[in-house]
Amino acid sequence: MPEPSDERLTVKLMNDYGADWPVWTLFDPAVDAAVEEAVDGALGSRLRVWAEVFNERYHHERGWDDPRVAAEHRAEGEALRDALEAVLPEPLRVRLDYWETHGA
User: Which domain of life is it from (predicted)?
Assistant: First the structure.
């Protein structure tokens, strides 16, 4: 694998409009395979639900439709970051890119 300081070793947890999977890599086949192998059904389901809540409740112009949902979503993102990092092999690391703060 590449050097630990290599950005290719960073797995990004981030929502994007219309995306049902919020885990992003730099398309390194070894990193993609490690993520696929490490994420079990329960964690995968949580990740997909997190993305679904974003897609259903965050508007591109108005932001969140409810501040409570926004706060819960942010907290779940932080918990998912920690859970994902706990299952990924070294030297992979996870960065939460939480940009959806409008209306929170």
Answer: Bacteria
Q: Report the distance separating Cα 58 and Cα 63, nearest Å.
A: 5
Digit-by-digit pLDDT tens for the chain (104 residues) are 444 457 889 999 999 999 999 999 988 899 999 999 999 999 999 999 999 999 999 999 999 999 999 999 999 999 999 999 999 999 999 999 999 998 77
CA angle, 73 as apex, 50 and 13 as ends, to 5°? Answer: 55
**Pure H helices in the chain:** 29-38, 41-57, 67-87
Alpha-carbon distance of 31 to 10, in angstroms, equals 9
> Across-strand partners of 63?
59
Pairing of strands 58-59, 63-64: antiparallel
In whole angstroms, what is the distance from residue 61 CA to residue 70 CA? 15
pTM: 0.90
